Amino acid sequence: MPFVEDDQIETFQRDGVILLKAIFADWIETLREGVERNIREPGPYGRDYPVEGGRFFGDYCNWSRIGEYREFLFRSPAAETVADLMQSRTARVFHEHVLVKEPGTDRITPWHHDQPYYCVDGSQVCSLWIPLDPVEKTTCPEFVAGSHRWGRRFMPRKFSGIDYDHDDPDLEAAPDIDARRGDYDIRSWQLEPGDAIAFHFMTLHGAPANLSAHRRRGFAARWLGDDTVYAKRSGEVSPPFPGLDERLSPGDPLDTEEFPLVYQRPV
């Protein structure tokens, strides 16, 4: 039995973002345990972003050392779900990414889309953002529906608001969405733990501050489909995946140990 219906696949393909209700309800305690371990034991990329109040913690690429993450990625319905949404026969792990905004955290996440940060080209790509706490619409990440089909690539920005140092004439500054919100179809939701927002790597998104009295722990699982290949960018990539450029050339399939194949549709 499929985890998503045909109309949901159509919505994802058209809008680049969709809410999947209660799809991972059975996995929330596992992910919470993993995130708390991650906060206690950050990986090499773990960091606290500067804030005036609260705490904004982020980390990624820890699935190989945090068993709860690995269990979710390899045993939950996530891989089959994204394969269906991407219309892909396969689903590979790209990486997981944890972002925790504690109560009273005043820092926003700027508008951006993810693929220019990544060493990946291709259209069969998908992230799942899973809230581990109830999320009010005022603190939910926001997405510009249809922006994955604009044919535009925006300069990657650090969450501090500083642009990456990329020398690529095809990259442009992201539009000021907040200055003209009425011009865009902006999606956000009130979420419960177990829900998931599925979105394309090219979908423009950002997130407000968490000025509520509640934690906002978000676990993102990022996935690669059939047509994804290695891309060499003109500057820093995030995550960095050290040594990958010594083993892969642009256009090579991402068939390496860093990106394990989790799902392959039966013939």
Low-pLDDT segments, ≥5 res: none
Give me the count of strands: 16
- What is the N-to-C succession of helices and strands? HEHEEHHEEEEEEEEEEEEHE
The value of Rg in angstroms is 17 Å
What would the principal axes of the Cα set say about the shape? globular
Number of helices: 5
User: Which percent range fits the helix content?
Assistant: 10-25%
Largest sheet: 8 strands, antiparallel
Care to describe what's here?
The protein has 267 residues and is an alpha+beta fold. It is 17% helix and 25% strand. The chain contains 5 helices and 16 strands. The strands form 4 sheets. Strands 1, 2, 3, 4, 7, 12, 14 and 16 form an 8-stranded antiparallel beta sheet that branches. The chain has a 4-stranded antiparallel beta sheet with strand order 5-13-8-11, with no helix packed on it. Helix 2 runs antiparallel to helix 3. The two termini are 16 Å apart. The relative contact order is 0.24. The mean pLDDT is 96.
Element layout with pairings:
Blueprint: H1 6-15, E1 17-20, H2 28-40, E2 47-49, E3 56-60, H3 67-75, H4 78-86, E4 90-101, E5 109-112, E6 120-121, E7 125-131, E8 142-144, E9 153-154, E10 171-172, E11 186-187, E12 196-199, E13 205-207, E14 216-224, E15 229-230, H5 244-247, E16 261-264
Parallel strand pairs: 9-10
Antiparallel strand pairs: 1-12, 2-3, 3-4, 4-14, 4-16, 5-13, 6-15, 7-12, 7-14, 8-11, 8-13
Helix pairs in contact: 2-3
